[in-house]
Recover the amino acids of this structure.
């Protein structure tokens, strides 16, 4: 898919109502409080002994993320970065973690977030990987503002 197609997917995601029930399919997952879409996915790295394929794949996904982030910043202002480590730790300790933060924290270290206060939610872009042999994934996610406890300033 092209950057234009990814941007169109993000536009749809930002205005799409949250589903009544949790779902998962090949394009992503969602539920009553969130949507997550896979924008790009790399190959796996089982046979990447020297790590060069992973480096190339990460650069490709990062370039796409940077292009999308620049367009989103033009539209919605500067993003802020959310460290997902505390959400992963909380989940591992059995504490409830709101979606999509629970899902993303298991694959993503940090995400860029744009508050969408007029919609009561936020939009994020992130690159993640569930394990070093598995593909890298460029995610777009939308969640309710309450999942990040966004204040009126847009920061958690």
């Amino acid at each position: 898919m092209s950057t234009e197609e990814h941007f169109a997917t993000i536009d749809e995601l930002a205005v799409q109502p949250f589903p009544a029930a949790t779902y998962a399919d090949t394009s992503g997952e969602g539920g009553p409080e969130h949507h997550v879409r896979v924008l790009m996915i790399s190959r796996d790295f089982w046979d990447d002994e020297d790590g060069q394929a992973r480096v190339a794949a990460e650069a490709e996904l990062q370039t796409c993320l940077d292009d999308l982030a620049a367009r989103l910043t033009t539209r919605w202002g500067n993003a802020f970065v959310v460290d997902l480590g505390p959400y992963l730790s909380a989940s591992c300790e059995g504490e409830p973690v709101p979606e999509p933060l629970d899902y993303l924290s298991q694959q993503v270290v940090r995400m860029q977030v744009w508050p969408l206060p007029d919609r009561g939610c936020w939009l994020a872009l992130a690159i993640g990987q569930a394990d070093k042999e598995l593909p890298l994934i460029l995610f777009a996610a939308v969640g309710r503002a309450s999942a990040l406890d966004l204040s009126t300033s847009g920061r958690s």
Observations:
- The beta strands are 23-25, 28-31, 34-41, 80-83, 110-116, 121-128, 137-144.
- Residues 52-76 form the longest helix (25 residues).
